[in-house]
Specification:
By secondary structure, the chain is an alpha+beta fold. The protein has 15 helices and 13 strands. The protein folds into 3 domains: about 110 residues, NADH:ubiquinone oxidoreductase Nqo5 subunit (Beta Polymerase, domain 2, 2-Layer Sandwich); about 45 residues, no CATH class; about 300 residues, Cytochrome-c3 Hydrogenase, chain B (Orthogonal Bundle). About 40% of the residues lie in helices and about 15% in strands.
Length: about 500
C-alpha cells in the first residue's frame, strides 16, 4: 500500500477514502525523506477533528519534480516532534499543539503561534508571553509594539541587544485572531465565503480569492473557459505590481529618499486605479468569484489597462534605476539584513523571501495552474539575501508582471468564450479534500477544503506565505544595528492579518 498520493497538477481534489493513512512512524519516515531535498518544502500540515481522534494532513511540494505529495496519519498524541530533523515544521507543529493540545515530544520551541497559551495549554495574558531572555548586565531588551505609528496591524517585536547590535528578535503576533477558518466553514453561503476570502488579507484580496475559488472549483470539477483563468491571472499580476511598487516607495521612505517615495506612490495609484476601473474596487474586491465573474475584461477596458501599464512602467523603470544606483541608498541596502540560502531552506521560506537568497521557489513556475500553464514564465532570482536583493526583486517582478499581463491580454483576444456568472449554489461532493496554491505577491498561498458526509464544508484551512516568512525577518536582523530594523522589516513587508487568521 502506498503511503502517499503524488500528483503533478493543482488545484486538486480527491475522495478522503483514497487517502492512505499509515502509522505515524511511517509518516515520519516518508516526510523526512521527502523534505531531505532542498527543492522540497512543506506547503501545509494541520489537524482536523475526526470522531474521537485527529486526522493529520500534510502537503509537500517539490519544485524541481513539479509534484505535490499528500500524506496523512491519525491519532491524538503524544507524538515525536519532526522539528529537530526538519526545522521548517516547527510552526506547523506549534499550531497543531496550540489548537488541539497535541504534545510534540522533543520540539525545541513549543510556543504559541497566535493564542496566549503555554506548552500545557494554559491561558495567560498576552503581556505575559514567554519571550526568550538572557540574564545579563551587559544585555538589554527593546520592545516595539503592539501599537504602532500609522495604520498597521498589532504585533510585538522583542529585541535582545548588546549595545546597538541585535542578538535575537522574537515576534509575537496573534492580537487579532479573527477566526477566519471557522467563518469559512460554519454553514456560510457561497457569497459570504467569497467575501470573507477576499478580506483574509486586504493587500492580497485577489490572491486569496483565487485560492478560494480554485479550491471550490476543484471539488466540483466543473469545466470553465480558459479566458476566465487568464483574467484572474491578470488581476493577480496587477496586484503584484501595485504592492511591489508601493513597497518600493516605502523602502525610499525608510532611507529618507522623498523623491522616490512620492513618485512610486503615484505609480502605485495608477496600477490600483486600473483595478478599480475594472471592478470598482482598488484592491480587486468583488472581482474574483467561484465559477464565473461579474466583470469580464472587455475590449475597451483592455486598451485602458495597456495604456495605464505603459504609463506606469515608463516612469517606474527610470526611477527604480536611479534609486538603486544612488550611493546613499546603496549604503543602506547592500549588505544589510542578509539571510542566506541555507537559512531560507531551513525555515521553508516561500516567494520573494526564498528567491532573494537564490532559492527558486515560485508556484507560477513549479506548480502552475491553468493560466500559467499557457505561457512561458521563469521567476526572477537574486542571491545576496540582503535588503538590496529584496529591492531589486521588486523591480524585476514589476517588470515581469507587466510583460505577463501584456502577454495574457494577447492570449485573451484569441479566446471568445462567453464567461459564466458566479454560482454559489453548486453541491460539493461528500467526504472529499481539495486544495489550491496561488503565488501571491508575498509568496505561496494555500487553501484546503474538507467536506463531510453531507457535502458540507467540514474544515477550511488557510495558509498565508507570512506564516513561513516571519522567521526570515528574525534572522535578517541578527548581528545588525537595531536602527536597521525598519528597512529590514519594510523590505519583507509581511502580513500581520494573513498570519493572525
Amino acid at each position: 500500500m502506498k503511503d502517499t498520493i503524488t500528483i503533478s497538477q493543482q488545484p486538486y481534489s480527491l475522495s478522503l477514502n483514497e487517502l492512505p493513512i499509515p502509522d505515524y512512524s511511517v509518516f515520519c519516515k516518508v516526510v523526512t525523506h521527502l523534505l531531505s531535498k532542498e527543492a522540497a518544502h512543506c506547503v501545509n500540515y494541520f489537524a482536523v477533528p475526526d470522531k474521537d481522534s485527529l486526522l493529520f494532513l500534510c502537503l509537500i511540494a517539490n519544485d524541481e519534480a513539479h509534484t505535490i505529495d499528500i500524506l496523512a496519519h491519525k491519532g491524538g498524541g503524544p507524538l515525536a516532534s519532526l522539528t529537530p530533523v526538519i526545522p521548517a515544521l516547527h510552526i506547523f507543529e506549534r499550531e497543531i499543539h496550540e489548537n488541539y493540545g497535541v504534545q510534540f515530544e522533543g520540539h525545541p520551541w513549543l510556543k504559541p503561534v497566535r493564542f496566549a497559551r503555554d506548552s500545557n495549554g494554559n491561558s495567560y495574558p498576552m503581556d505575559d508571553y514567554p519571550f526568550y531572555s538572557i540574564d545579563s548586565h551587559e544585555l538589554h531588551e527593546v520592545g516595539v509594539g503592539p501599537v504602532h505609528a500609522g495604520v498597521i496591524e498589532p504585533g510585538h517585536f522583542r529585541f535582545l541587544c548588546n549595545g546597538e547590535k541585535v542578538l535575537h528578535l522574537e515576534i509575537q503576533l496573534g492580537y487579532q485572531h479573527r477566526g477566519v477558518e471557522k467563518l469559512m466553514g460554519e454553514g456560510r453561503n457561497g457569497l459570504q465565503r467569497a467575501v470573507c476570502a477576499e478580506n483574509i488579507a486586504g493587500d492580497t484580496a485577489v490572491g486569496h480569492s483565487i485560492a478560494h475559488a480554485s479550491a471550490l472549483e476543484a471539488l466540483t470539477g466543473v469545466p470553465l473557459p480558459v479566458n476566465l483563468y487568464l483574467e484572474r491571472a491578470i488581476a493577480l499580476e496587477l496586484e503584484r505590481m501595485a504592492m511591489h511598487i508601493g513597497d518600493t516607495a516605502a523602502l525610499c521612505t525608510d532611507v529618507a529618499y522623498q523623491l522616490g517615495q512620492v513618485v512610486n506612490e503615484s505609480l502605485r495609484t495608477i496600477v490600483i486605479n486600473t483595478t478599480q476601473l475594472w471592478c470598482g474596487n482598488r484592491f480587486g474586491k468583488g472581482l474574483i468569484r467561484p465559477f464565473g465573474t461579474h466583470y469580464p475584461l472587455s475590449g475597451e477596458l483592455t486598451s485602458r489597462v495597456k495604456k495605464n501599464l505603459k504609463e506606469a512602467m515608463k516612469r517606474f523603470l527610470p526611477m527604480s534605476d536611479r534609486m538603486l544606483s544612488m550611493p546613499s541608498l546603496l549604503a543602506r541596502y547592500e549588505g544589510i539584513g542578509i539571510v542566506t540560502r541555507e537559512q531560507v531552506v531551513s525555515i521553508g521560506a516561500v516567494g520573494m523571501a526564498a528567491r532573494m537568497a537564490g532559492l527558486n521557489r515560485d508556484i507560477r513556475h513549479s506548480h502552475p495552474d491553468e493560466a500559467y500553464r499557457t505561457i512561458h514564465f521563469y521567476p526572477a532570482v537574486r542571491d545576496s539575501g540582503d535588503v538590496m536583493a529584496r529591492a531589486l526583486l521588486r523591480r524585476m517582478e514589476v517588470e515581469a508582471s507587466c510583460q505577463l499581463i501584456l502577454d495574457m491580454l494577447t492570449l485573451l483576444e484569441q479566446e471568445k468564450a462567453e464567461l459564466p456568472l458566479p454560482d454559489y449554489s453548486l453541491s460539493l461532493p461528500p467526504d472529499s479534500l481539495s486544495f489550491s496554491m496561488v503565488e501571491g505577491w508575498r509568496g505561496e498561498i494555500c487553501h484546503t477544503i474538507l467536506t463531510d458526509s453531507q457535502g458540507k464544508i467540514r474544515h477550511y484551512k488557510v495558509k498565508d506565505p507570512s506564516l513561513h516568512n516571519w522567521m526570515a525577518l528574525t534572522l535578517a536582523v541578527r548581528d545588525q544595528e537595531i536602527s536597521d530594523f525598519p528597512v529590514c522589516n519594510k523590505s519583507f513587508n509581511l502580513s500581520y492579518c494573513g498570519h493572525d487568521l
